[in-house]
Amino acid sequence: MSSLPVVRVALPTPLRRLFDYRAGPAGAGAIEPGVRVRVPFGRRRLIGIAVEVAAGSELPEERLKPVLERLDPLPVFDPAALALLAWAADYYHHPIGEVLAAALPKALRLGAPTHPTEERWLLTPEGREAYARGEPRRAPRQRQLLGALAGTDSIHQGAGLSAADLDEKLQAWREAARALKARGWLAAVETAAAPAAAPDAAAVGPSLEPNEEQRLAIARIGDSLGSFGAFVLHGVTGSGKTEVYLQVVERALRLGRSALVLVPEIGLTPQLVSRFRQRFAVPMAVLHSALTDHERLLAWRDAFSGRARIVLGTRSAVFAPAQDLGVIVVDEEHDTSFKQHEGGFRYSARDLAVVRAHRAGVPVVLGSATPSLETLQNVAAARYTRLALTRRAADAAPPRISLLDLRSSAVHAGMSTPAVQAIERHLHAGGQVLVFLNRRGYAPTLLCTACGWIAPCRDCDARLTVHLSIARLRCHHCGADSALPQRCPQCGFAVKSVGQGTERIEETLATLFPGIPCIRLDRDVVRRRGDMEEAMRRMSSGEARILVGTQMVTKGHDFPNVTLVVVLNADQGFFSTDFRAPERLAQTIVQVAGRAGRGERAGEVLIQTEFPDHPLLLSLLADGYDGFARAALTERSQASWPPFSRLAAVRDSAGTAEAALAFLTEGRKAAEELRGHGASGSWARSVRLLGPAPAAMAKRAGRHHAQLLVESADRAALHRFLDAWLPALESLPSARRVRWALDVDPIELF
Ligand code: ADP
Ligand code: ZN
Ligand code: ZN
């Protein structure tokens, strides 16, 4: 026991605890919660976050090591941020050190300063004397550099010049600087850079005159600024949700507050970013996955310093240090990319956005044309307020949706005759056509018709996809890549591509409609930043007439002249083991259908299916997404799936299927033992264990996957159970033979 003041530090380790350190010679008062500190850890030095300052420690004095360094003048996490992240660590049952690390850009985890610094070069007294003597005589570049610095010397009293200034004045000065520094004539220092000036007023571009529904939504959310409220902006595609976001953000800015806007994937929604840029002149920090570590640091600093008044970003931006936060917007709240479902800390950015807004006392807006069933259930339970935009803003009529029964019409290369005729009709009338197929590549199967061989992935329970244009076979699950064989490796007979991918549909469309320019949009063609914008431009300008693509085409683009949308395979969603598959299918259909007829002309949507009688599909057609949601929620409630229960999944993988199952089987036994202990019976009884079972695709990238689900109608009981169970899981000997992770509120079940 020590009664020295200590700092309790969160370190990026999988251990579920804080570590005590002596506050150092300057005393505990010198370190406040939320600053980064450098501390000794075993034989290493780590950067961690001071979480608490305490008056004493359980550890004896001689075992307390000192904090080596405080890195920040100001905390990187203010008390509200620390509290939110502690809540998240608790809720997702993840070690606090890793949670805090995940909330910082990599450069800061490695020790970069929170405030911009500047590299400045100065003359040393020796350097000044040397320059006065006329040295160095045979190195004109060095002489010039000394001269430039000597010049500033007399004016700025030794202020020197920044590297940026030198870049402007002199060419190739760095080499000269290095040589002079080696002689002791120059010195380089890092100093705080002058903060970039921020425009002081919230300069705003002209807004649209809102229609009645938009006006009501803006007023309801706007009146709630300054206190918590969760609003679901349920607006059909094209109903003008973005305009509502813009006007709500404008009101927050006028109150001197900032706004945090979360979007699924920026590369896929360039239009939203540019509409924010066009509307507001205030500095905006944009955070997304394509940034370099340095760019991410700069964006974080812009938010942290308060310069950026709008922070717009993908999932992890929910942790961005937006100052004076006034409102949070989550666009396309149903999008699964808001859930981090890989790596260690698996969180839902949408759910954390609501928690953050609640703790900060600000409104949060969850926008979607197809809200998740969880969110709709929160509306039904009066926890969230629904604001509906039922009409398309620009007076466009809603599209007509109909089913094409694949069993009763001739199908050629994946397209039924009525679909081909409809495409012809719309092209003839001057419209553009969008063809949606959720499968990239040329064909999903390579088959030998003589012996029945099918090209398999060696490392996955999956077939290889044919990519004809590059003559490769690829696995879409592990990335395996090999040459496309001409003959069957088993019998030598010629092989054949079976089934349709976007590449093949593009080829088919080119044969059916020669001379009609067609573009394809999927992950094979959209590789670099700008590829997406280029495709958008060609569609908007009318240069291209047909767009064929995957999920990518369903995201918020506006093509006013698209009058027909064809969905080629609506059926995948019905065969999945995941109880959320029908919800995803309905969302995709509604989103892609929303791309039709956004301009003056009414749109038409054709859905090819082999199950035209499927009840959920019929409710979607008859009563729209609302009708579908009612039917699907009833099913969920009967089966007691979320949102009518809470789920957690323990997933693992191992070199063999047996090892993957063995750990989870022991885990289940450990859970049953806990249940056996009478005292804890109350929570244990309301928790159901399902599994373990191999994942639907058990083998992926050479590893065997399995999962065990934990379900309870009582959220608190589930979390108490996890608190007791996780230490037991961690201490199982078999835990060391697998890779495993806990996923609270999993949204994808394998
Ligand atoms: P959503 O995000 O709901 O899909 P958008 O915000 O993209 O819809 O709006 C669809 C189209 O309607 C855009 O071209 C937008 O400029 C236009 N729009 C939105 N609100 C109005 C309005 N009040 N008056 C006229 N046009 C509007
Ligand atoms: Zn063969
Ligand atoms: Zn594979």
Question: What would you say this structure looks like, in words?
Answer:
The chain has 21 helices and 32 strands. The two termini are 48 Å apart. Helices cover 33% and strands 23% of the residues. About 1% of the residues have low confidence. It has five domains: 104 residues, 3-Layer(aba) Sandwich (GIY-YIG endonuclease); 76 residues, no CATH class; 182 residues, P-loop containing nucleotide triphosphate hydrolases (Rossmann fold, 3-Layer(aba) Sandwich); 187 residues, 3-Layer(aba) Sandwich (Rossmann fold); 99 residues, Ribosomal protein S10 (Alpha-Beta Plaits), CATH 3.30.70. With 750 residues, the protein is of the alpha/beta class. The protein has a seven-stranded parallel sheet, with helices on both faces. The protein has a six-stranded parallel sheet with strand order 16-28-27-19-26-25, sandwiched between helices. The chain has a five-stranded antiparallel sheet with strand order 2-1-4-3-5. Helix 17 links the parallel strand 27 and strand 28. The site of adenosine-5'-diphosphate (ADP) has 16 residues, from helix 9.
